[in-house]
Amino acid sequence: MLNLLDYSYNEIEKIIAEMGEKFFRAKQLYSALQNYKKADEISNLSKSFLSELSKTYTFCPLQIFKKFVGKDGTVKYLYKLDDGNLIEGVLMSYKYGNTICVSTQVGCRMGCKFCASTLNGLVRNLTAGEILAQVLCVNKDLGGTYENRKITNIVLMGSGEPLDNYDNVVKFIRLVSSEKGINISQRNISLSTCGLVDKINKLADENLQITLTISLHAPNDDIRKQTMPIANKYGIKEVINATKNYFNKTKRRIVFEYALISGVNDSFECAEQLAYLVKGMSCHINLIPLNEVKERGLVGTTRKKAYAFMNKLAQLNVSATVRRTMGEDIEGACGQLRAKVLNNKI
């Protein structure tokens, strides 16, 4: 079955035309899709038309399988796709609005040693519509519509490496920011990558206004190779040069994610090397005391030491903050909940 959410408004118009339906049906159908309605929930289109459409297309490619609400209000979603696969997402509420973290792949093949998403390897890429469905499904769950949406920000930081699913991710960004759809500003979208240099350079030419976030996690190649296999293909200087190119073409400040791992990358010497690495760049360092993934055996830095690391960076004129811990009581680490379900542990 084809997924209707994979199609733009103009592409929906073509489908409608090919079926011999009136032109205005496209707007009715697209509005229903953006409100994440199943075929039997759509009342302003004929049953015969919807029945014919349903022979070829699916309307809602995923459903909420399980939902967990943390003490701080963070919500962890486990979605079930039409093919039975499971993916995750997280909803975080802030003073400025609701941020949803979406997955871009079922699993991941990057092999980062601090991440749970890659424990079972890569199963498959998500389509643009399956990524979009996560946003629309949660927006509906919150009581929102595409005209009065409850989701304000998106981070592509769930399971998977977004740039390893490049075409679908770029199409998703265009779909979710379309004025015809849910219309979330590209400036409110962040994409996190472990550093696929060729794809970062390609992204810089897409004329998008999203924030690029680099999962750096080390100040030099020797340390980076200990935890991130991608470092064996792309050196840290190549990654930095690609981010500079992205900034030069988009004028969007770069964010570097830095997971602090006890005894690995949390020394003051590492802070000094990191400051030198990003010197002169328009960037911000997001320090994250590592969330424990039991299967990996790595231990996160204490928050006290994380703040000491941050203060050292500040002394070296580098903008940095320590990320607030959210959803820790509901398995906040990406991929952890999915892994537990697959192993029949919940």
> What percentage of residues falls in helices of 4 or more residues?
25-40%
| Number of helical segments with 4 or more residues | 11
* Coarse morphology: elongated
Query: Overall mean pLDDT score?
Result: 93
Oligomer: single chain
Q: Strand count, sense and closure of the main sheet?
A: 10 strands, mixed
Topology, number of strands: 14
The poorly predicted ranges are none
Write the element-wise H/E pattern from the N-terminal end onward.
EHHHEEEEEEEHEHEHEHHEHEHEH
Rg: 21 Å
Task: Describe the protein.
- Helix content is 32%, strand content 21%.
- The model has no long low-confidence stretch (mean pLDDT 93).
- α4 (128-141) packs across α5 (166-176), α6 packs parallel to α8 and α9 crosses α10.
- It has 346 residues and is α/β, with parallel strands linked by helices.
- β3 (62-69) and β4 (75-81) form a beta hairpin.
- The strands form three sheets. Strands 3-4-5-6-9-10-11-12-13-14 form a ten-stranded mixed sheet.
- The longest helix is centred in the last third of the chain and has 15 residues, at 236-250.
